[in-house]
Structure formats: structure tokens, C-alpha cells
Amino acid sequence: MTNGDVHALSGAYVLDALTDIERATFRRHLVSCATCAIEVAELQETAARLADGAWSVPPPALRDRVFAEVSRTRQDAPTPAKPVRPQRNRRLFSVAAAVVLAAVAATGTFAVQERRLDQQRTTAQAESARVTEVLSAPDAILRSAGSTSGVRLTVVTSAARGEAVLTMTAERPAGADRTYQLWMLDGTTPTSAAVLPPGTTSATRLITGTAAADTFAATIEPEGGSATPTLPIVGQVSVA
């Protein structure tokens, strides 16, 4: 397998569509390739969002089901000799109102979700552009380190920009009601860099204000994060 072939496996790796040999080869490749590590982290975050119920759009079949219910409601043919019974009128009106309300609710939901997606897309594009600027900076330096805890940190720093792109990959989630938190260390002074969502095993973050940082680290914290690191540190990479 050529180096170019390995670079092309990011998507299949995230979708768990590789053979055992391909998976092992790609994991070895991730250790030394920041670009692929970042791409895998971003793809895994995207897949997690798509699986999140809060991101789901009301199913297109909703309208069909509502109108199918209307069609099952018995509607007698009108006869001039007999007035339409008020009770049936009320029933048909209720069904029609339900259809209108369902349509309005669906339309409103679509509009809100579309605006939310547009905002998130704009934010993601802006951050992606800044990540690219750090990775392509003339003074960009790549460093990576693993740990016995199964956590690997890969960081690309730009001293001129005072920014870094930090990627964490973990063999397993942090645990129930726990999460990974990323830190910058200036000597012995820690500064929180990011609190990752519960269940996260791969993430990439753009870190600013890194001029004084000499180490990046990861710890396992209570859900929501902590003000100071909880020992032990489960992963760290020195940039001094």
C-alpha cells in the first residue's frame, strides 16, 4: 500500500469499513500524520453530530402520514335533502386543523434547524480556515506523544501566531459521567484549553494564546470539566 493510498483511508476508517490489516496500517500512519489525525477527528465529530437526535430533521414521511390519516376519516357524500351533521363538521374541522398545525410546526422546525445549521456551518468554516493557517504557517512544528492510558496528543504549534491545533485520540471514552479535558501548561500553571463532550474519543481544537505554553495535556474530569487538572494526567506532549 502506497503512502497516497494510506492518506485516502480516513473516511473508511471512521466508518469502520477497513480490513484488520488496513486498520492496523492506518493507525500506525496516524501516529506521524497530523493531517490525517485531524481529518479523522473532524469526521468522527461530524458522524457524532449526525447521530445526535437534536440534529435530526422531522422525517419527510410526516406529511404523508398526516394526510393518510385524513384519507381514512370517513366522509359521507353530501345529499341535498339532509343537512350535514354539526358533529361530523366538528370532526372534519379538527382533522383539518391538525393537518394545518402539523404543517406549520414542521415548517417552523425546518426553518429553525436550517438557521442553526447555517450558523454552525459558518462557524465551522471560519475555524477550519484558522486551523489551515496554523498548519501551513512557515514556523509550524508538529509534535506527537502517546501514553500507557491509550491517549495520544498531536499538536501543531505556530509561535508567530501564538496558536496551536491540538488533536486528541483515545482508545476508549472517559467513562460514565466523566469526560476528557485538554490543558495548556506554563511551567506548573495549568490553563483549560477545552472540555470535550462526554463519550468523545477523538477531537481537534484550535487553541489560542499558546505563546507561553510548554506542555499540552489531557485529564479525565467530571462531566462539565474542572478548574484545575485532576491527576493523573492521561496524556501529554511537550512543546518546549
UniProtKB/TrEMBL annotation:
Residues 93-232 form the Anti-sigma K factor RskA C-terminal domain. It is found in: Cell membrane; Membrane. Coiled coil: none annotated. It comes from the Bacteria. GO terms for biological process: regulation of translation. One of its GO terms (molecular function) is sigma factor antagonist activity. Residues 5-37 form the Putative zinc-finger domain. The chain crosses the membrane at residues 92-112. This is Regulator of SigK. The lineage of its organism: Bacteria, Bacillati, Actinomycetota, Actinomycetes, Micromonosporales.
